[in-house]
Amino acid sequence: MAPHHIRKYQETDRKRVLDLFSQGMFEHVPATIRLGLKMPQTFLVLLGVPVALLLVSGSWLLALGSNVTLLVFLWLLARHPWRKYVVMCLQTDLADINKSYLRDHGSCFWVAESGGHVAGIVGALQVKDAPPGRKQLQLFHLSVALEHRGEGLGKALVMTVLQFARAQGYSEVVLDTTTVQEAALTLYLRMGFQKTGEYFFDKVFRLLGIYMIQLKYCLPSAQEGSL
To answer: Using CA atoms, how far apart are residues 31 and 27, in angstroms rounded to an integer?
Structure first.
């Protein structure tokens, strides 16, 4: 396992950072498809449509072809929300990472280097509409390259955000993840984040029963101040 170190984002990292982000999002499409296949209504459609076509046309080829078509449609459906999120981010905060994350002292974007290559990323932005009396930092875009999973980079990147938040006087670190991102969710909960809410990102996630999960980490100073 190659040693790693975490540093602030540089413009020369841009292509690798965007690739890591996009790959990290699209890798959840297969899990989204599996969830869709487990739904009773999906099973009924995949079984019912071919049987109906077979009874009407008498053609096994048409019946089997309809199943392939339905599976392709499910793949496109499962991919849609992830692509929508990627496009949205590439047009907003990731369009200019320096401007979005590095101009304000209360925000930052980091990369984890391993073996001379960018192997992980994470960003953090101040929450502008935080509840009264709270100063919140939001964690964004945690992603680790597949070949570097299991090396502790994800935990190290999250710890970097927590340390930054503490140094900047934030009371809470918040983030959103999904029920599909099981490894990330497990990591956050083990590190002390707590669930605060759930919502659906779009109609496709609602259809497939995939929730966005809101998490919060209360920094020790904030916890002690509330005693």
So the answer is: 8
Is the pLDDT at 224 greater than 60? The verdict is no
80 phi and psi, to 5 degrees? -55, -50
| Sequence-separated (6 or more) residues with CB below 8 Å from residue 148 | 4, 114, 119, 120
- Reported as a pLDDT band with limits 50, 70 and 90, residue 110 is very high
Residue 94, Cβ density class (10 Å: 0-12 exposed, 13-18 middle, ≥19 buried): buried
Please check whether residue 123 is in contact with residue 157, taking contact to mean a CB–CB distance below 8 angstroms: no
DSSP secondary-structure letter at 160?
Answer: H
Q: Does the pTM exceed 0.85?
A: yes
**Residue 156 host element (H or E):** helix 153-167
